[in-house]
Amino acid sequence: MAYGTLNAGTITPGSGNTLTVSETVAFTGTVSHSDGNITNVGDIALDTISSDAGTSIGVTLGTDAGDDFNVGSGKLVVEGDSGNVGIGVVPEAWQSSRTALQIGDSTAVWGDSYKNTWFTNNVYRNAVGTDSRINASYASQIYMNNGGSIFLQTAVTAAADSAISWISPITILSNGNVLYGTTNASPGEGSTSGTRIGLSGKSQFSAGSAVVFMVNRFGTDGTLQEFKKSGTTVGSITVTGSATAFNTSSDYRLKENVVAMSGSIDRLKALKPSRFNFIVDADTTVDGFLAHEAQAVVPEAITGTKDAMQEEEYEVTPAVMDGETVVTEAVMGTRSVPDMQGIDQSKLVPLLVSALQEAITRIETLENA
Predict the structure, then answer these.
(1) Within this chain, do residues 268 and 249 fall inside the same structural domain, yes or no?
(2) Half-sphere exposure of 213 toward its Cβ, with a 13 Å CA cutoff?
């Protein structure tokens, strides 16, 4: 069929026949398909495409650049060579290994052969695999990797087509833990700044040379933080305009079998105060106790058991990454590490007071003799 316009009428290929268009033809009438084919070598411009009830319309595109299905001059574009789809826009020149749905001039949904998915704003991955801005503006995305983690990422404003350097302010790991300001799953166990909110309730806060955790009460004096065990309050931190108090449960209504202390001088003499330095701070000498020695005299002042060990998870082999894509998950293992004892030296105060009172009584007895 030569170049021209068919203004009216109906063209109906018979069953098994093919209507081949080798040039551009604009139909204002009807092209009816009856088990035949319409093969487009040039262009066909149609006002409407419709099918009978229960009959689908199939469009097979070529795989060369420009073999596109275009509805309404860019209202819907399907690229035959890449498979990318644009709604209200012709898709950007995406990397060939990515398949994208681009909506308008800023929104896109795309994936890759590793089964990763991205929901993006003002982002496309260019032909050489670099995340780039569609427009001269900010960029952001939700990246879901094949390991089950979700990354909320942002980028500062820059020129159109410029490469993006992502910041990952929020990460949701596959185990449900939420990271803020880091992608390190355990920021509190090393030298990485960031926060982890644990799904099981165990959270971590880490910073360099800065305040790590700040809590503020303004207005009246009172409780800043409350500590509970199985729903029962066992301690608190209270503040006034000039001071902070660290409180533990001590109400008489919580106690029974109350008796006066005795033999406190002998117990006090059993304590072995020492001077020492910690291994990590060799230049600082301090006064204190060895936990297991003090535990024999005032056990409530000590946590843990002498020479105890615990199991620790660690990374045997790091994950193999392709950019931000996890190609191979990290191999994790467990190892036995020391479970260190601790001391609350304030628990020694009752013994010190009682021993002092016993000593004063002895002194007064000698003075009055």
Answers:
(1) no
(2) 8
Q: Do 354 and 271 belong to one domain?
A: yes
The enclosing H or E element of 295 equals: helix 291-295
Domain that holds residue 54: 1-58
The amino acid at residue 153 is: Q
Domain count, the chain: 3
> Could you please report the per-residue DSSP string of 150-185?
EEEEEEEEE-TTPBP--EEEEEE-TTS-EEES---S
Contact 92, 102 (CB under 8 A): yes
Q: Retrieve residue 15's tokens.
A: 């069953």
Are 224 and 297 in the same domain?
no
**Sign of the alpha-carbon torsion through 313, 315, 316, 321:** positive
Q: Using DSSP bridges, classify how beta strands 68-71 and 244-248 pair: parallel, antiparallel or unpaired.
A: unpaired
For residues 330 and 321, what is the distance between their CA atoms, to the nearest angstrom?
A: 10
pLDDT by 10s per residue, the chain, length 369? 444 444 444 455 555 555 555 555 555 555 555 555 555 555 566 566 666 666 666 666 666 666 677 777 778 888 878 889 999 998 999 998 888 999 998 999 999 888 899 999 999 999 999 999 999 999 999 999 988 999 999 999 999 999 999 999 999 998 899 999 988 888 888 888 999 999 988 899 999 999 999 999 999 999 999 999 999 999 999 999 999 999 999 999 999 999 999 999 999 999 999 999 999 999 999 999 999 999 999 999 999 999 999 998 888 888 787 766 677 877 889 999 999 999 999 999 999 999 999 999 999 999 998
Look-up of token digits 């166990």:
189
- pTM of structure: 0.70
| Cβ contacts of 4 within 8 Å, gap of 6 or more | 23, 25
Which of 58, 78, 107 is the last residue in one of the domains?
Answer: 58
How far, in Å, are 291, 296, 351 from residue 286 at the CA level?
A: 14, 21, 22
Biggest alpha carbon distance in the chain? 135
Asked if residue 160 is part of any domain, the answer here is: no
CATH code where residue 337 lies: 1.10.10
